[in-house]
Specification:
The chain is built from twelve helices and eleven strands. The protein has a seven-stranded mixed beta sheet, sandwiched between helices. Strands 6-7 form a two-stranded antiparallel ribbon. A two-stranded antiparallel ribbon has the order 10-11. The chain has helices at residues 8-14, 16-29, 36-48, 60-71, 88-95, 117-120, 140-150, 202-211, 234-264, 293-302, 332-340, 352-366, and strands at residues 53-57, 78-81, 99-102, 125-128, 153-157, 165-166, 169-170, 177-181, 195-199, 286-289, 341-344. With 367 residues, the protein is of the alpha/beta class.
Length: 367
């Protein structure tokens, strides 16, 4: 039985009629940027996260970069973050001229170990960039407490955390701003690249909006900041608005799949993901860890089960970022997890039969 890791085509098949209609509507309108769907999506995502402002952008990476610029982070500054993540989290810090300072992760969550933040603070530290990973929030209480103790700004990397909450409060409310990715594989995915910043700070929102369009703040052709071309295309906004109506149902299906995995795999010597107290979980990924990862992955492939490794090499081991790390052994949990992590299929268009096949295959391997 073939089990694909992603099935983006299935999303289209489910929503073909409304997607075709809205794409034709946009193309025939002649309004391709900053149009009604773009403006409505900003309001809808901001409302979903209980924030005043949404700033739609052309990628989640640009969301992180513009968040840095709008906060004034630059050369001489340090930003505390983690190395078990997608590269955008670190590269956007480096692009500003600032220095990423890596701390290790909590082995139960793969996210920032907040007990290590204070020791990483120096007189140059300006911000903390916590990364909400795999569909739930990090220890936001620990992050915000550390930020308050050390007078630091919090900028949330919420690329994988659309709709995630802690004690009912959504991402975007634990710092100055949060950045989301709508890449095609996300729980809410565009038909290409797209991203967004949410914030409750009026002045910050005004800066971010200006920076996304060449730094034009006051009026057209008057430049207040060095900026970018980072508008979200109107077609992407329209596609996202259609899919947003299905996101809650798709997340419910992800939770059903996770429940099957958790039940079927519970008797194995295999650490399974957990929902942290106070969090909901949108199950962007279902990640297990095992020292036998490099045997399990080809075994699953023989059973026609796709799996992925997020992330195989921690960022402080990559050539462009090695100078910011302490070398091998400096982040022991990050390094161990990178050696052992394996992500199982959990997209919402899997059938129960496919999910059971994945679970049986993992059980058979360990048996």
């Amino acid at each position: 039985m073939r089990v694909p890791f992603y099935d983006i085509k299935a999303q289209y098949d489910e929503l073909a009629a409304p997607l075709d209609k809205v794409v034709h509507e946009v193309i025939s309108s002649g309004v391709y940027a900053l149009g009604p769907h773009h403006n409505a999506l900003e309001r809808e995502i901001a409302e979903l996260h209980g924030c005043k402002h949404g700033i739609a952008l052309n990628s989640g990476t640009d969301a992180l970069r513009i968040m840095m610029d709008a906060q004034g982070i630059g050369p001489g500054d340090e930003v505390i973050t983690t190395a078990f993540t997608f590269v955008a989290s670190t590269e956007t810090i480096v692009q500003t001229g600032a220095t990423p300072v890596f701390v290790d992760v909590d082995p139960s969550t793969f996210m920032i170990d907040t007990s290590l933040i204070d020791a990483a603070v120096t007189e140059r530290t300006k911000a903390i960039l916590p990364i909400h990973l795999f569909g739930q929030l990090c220890d936001v209480r620990g992050v915000t407490a550390a930020a308050e103790r050390n007078s630091l700004v919090v900028l949330e990397d919420a690329a994988q955390a659309i709709g995630c909450t802690y004690e009912g409060t959504p991402s975007g409310n634990f710092g100055v701003a949060a950045g989301f990715s709508f890449y095609v594989t996300k729980n809410l995915g565009a038909a290409g690249d797209a991203g967004m910043i949410v914030t409750n700070d009026d002045e910050y929102a005004a800066r971010a909006r200006a920076i996304r369009i060449h730094g034009m703040g006051r009026e057209r052709y008057y430049y207040d900041y060095v900026g970018y071309t980072s508008r979200m295309d109107e077609i992407q906004a329209a596609v996202l608005r259609v899919k947003l109506q299905r996101m809650a149902a798709w997340n419910e299906r992800r939770a059903e799949i996770a429940a099957i995995y958790l039940d079927r795999l519970s008797g194995l010597d295999l650490p399974l993901p957990s929902i942290q107290p106070g969090n909901n979980h949108t199950w962007h990924q279902f990640a297990v860890t095992t020292p036998r990862r490099n045997e399990l992955m080809p075994f699953l492939r023989e059973r026609q089960v796709d799996s992925m490794i997020y992330y195989p090499v921690p960022l402080h081991f990559h050539a462009p970022y090695a100078r910011f790390g302490g070398g091998e052994g400096s982040l022991p949990e990050t390094e161990r997890i990178s050696r052992e992590v394996l992500n199982l299929p959990i997209h919402p268009h899997l059938t129960d039969e496919q999910v059971e096949h994945v679970a049986r295959s993992v059980v058979d391997f360990f048996a």
